[in-house]
Amino acid sequence: MRTIGHWIDGQEVAGSGRTADVYNPATGEVQAKLALASREEMDRAIASAGEAQKAWGATNPQRRARVMMEMVRLLNRDMDKLAEALSSEHGKTLPDAKGDVQRGLEVIEFSIGAPHLLKGEFTDGAGPGIDMYSMRQPLGVVACITPFNFPAMIPLWKLGPALASGNAAILKPSERDPTVPMMLAALFKEAGLPDGVLQVMNGDKEAVDALLHSPVIQAVGFVGSTPIAQYIYEEAAKTGKRAQCFGGAKNHMIIMPDADMDQAADALVGAGYGAAGERCMAISVAVPVGEKTADALIERLVPRIEKLKVGPYTAGNDVDYGPVVTKAAQQNILRLVESGIQQGAELVVDGRDFSLQGYEDGFFVGPHLFDRVTRDMDIYKTEIFGPVLSTVRAQSYEEAVSYAMDHEYGNGVAIYTRDGDAARDFASRINVGMVGINVPIPVPLAYHTFGGWKRSGFGDLNQHGPDAFRFYTRTKTVTSRWPSGIKEGGEFHFRAID
Ligand code: NAD
Fold this sequence. Notes:
By secondary structure, the protein is an alpha/beta fold. The protein has 2 domains: 2-247 and 456-479, 3-Layer(aba) Sandwich (Aldehyde Dehydrogenase, Chain A, domain 1), CATH 3.40.605.10; 251-437, Aldehyde Dehydrogenase, Chain A, domain 2, CATH 3.40.309. 39% of the residues lie in helices and 23% in strands. The protein has a 7-stranded mixed β-sheet, sandwiched between helices. Helix 15 (420-429) links the parallel strand 19 and strand 20 (434-437). The mean pLDDT is 96. Residues 145-150, 172, 174-175, 204-205, 208, 223-225, 228, 246-249, 280, 383, 385, 411, 452, 456 line the site of nicotinamide-adenine-dinucleotide. Nicotinamide-adenine-dinucleotide (NAD) is lined by residues 145-150, 172, 174-175, 204-205, 208, 223-225, 228, 246-249, 280, 383, 385, 411, 452, 456.
């Protein structure tokens, strides 16, 4: 059986203690044993990163940017290999896996701009003979703790800005799909990153707690579920660390009566069921406005959903989405579907009996569509993170808006309409971080920033874009004055060198 250790000081190192199983979700088989780092292993890797950071932080930004430039080339070179490894542990289709790498790569491209992004500010003549300047300096060693659902993109979102800013980073990826993060570390080395500047430490709560309690770690960037995001934010704050922690989501899409219904239905199927619904920007709630809109929407959704092809990534283009990541996730989704039925929602498309010949032990979940979902139901309140779309019927625009406004999560939201005035009002009032207007998954590009509101995000700076460079640096402001003892009668008199 393949074993996966840690990436320490430029090479893979075997673990020495507990292990976890890494599955192939399409077959349900264990395909590797993953080392889980102990507190002592973490402390050693963190200390070594601290040493390596000194020289890296003193390296000029342009040289650091060149490592990012080379990394872009290597990611493109190895795109197919990375996507294959990613699909085999996550379960998503190969095009989705390539998208995962691509969206991460774009933040590495953005990080090539580090010399410009790190440039300070200067005020000439802030007072008589006084100049003032601000510089951005790296924090030191930072921690990046990432979820299973984007094992290439989210580590790269964090590592690009963190490393290009001159920090060393400890990446603690998800235990579910650790191979791609290990491959990324090897690629960074090949791109010229000095050993020790990036350590990939596999592990669970013990490894995370070691990061949170280490006095060497200066900042924690986290992405995952809301309860863990909140825990990490609170623990990091206790020891004075900077933290940005992004959590779960329940993204609504409002469909106005004037929307193009076919376009809206196509968008909902892609955004609701793509990647088996395991995207933090997936649409999981459709809110049609008016009974006629709701009926027209459901009529269009049902045949589209029934046509979805579910299968292993190895089936290539014949598959729309793959299995969910673990047996526990599969069971949790099916449990929530049962709760929806019991609490009175109407199950319009029932995927409970889904089974795939030859893959009976895989973690597949058929597509589900609920209608007449209400606020009090568990399927409405909870992030299901599976191929389950809930329809909530609103009688007015204001009622529809109130659903998205009142929900505890505020990651993404969308509106489908032909009315520019309604769209503008919506974008301005809605208390959600990322808004789509006739765009179902409004993920900002690398040079804007990504982040949710309410319980989808803890901390005050977003991921990628200029915010990421602010998060991974601190500002120092220098006020300087040069006494003019050497200046007499308007002339400079320089002391001769003896
Ligand atoms: P998760 O919270 O289970 O795990 C995330 C990370 O936290 C992993 O590295 C894991 O090892 C670690 N972890 C888990 N339990 C822990 C504990 N008790 N103490 C300390 N660390 C712990 O999340 P997941 O299931 O891997 O990912 C799915 C979640 O991530 C969803 O809720 C999804 O919405 C969210 N997500 C959010 C965004 C965003 O930008 N807001 C992006 C992607 C995913």
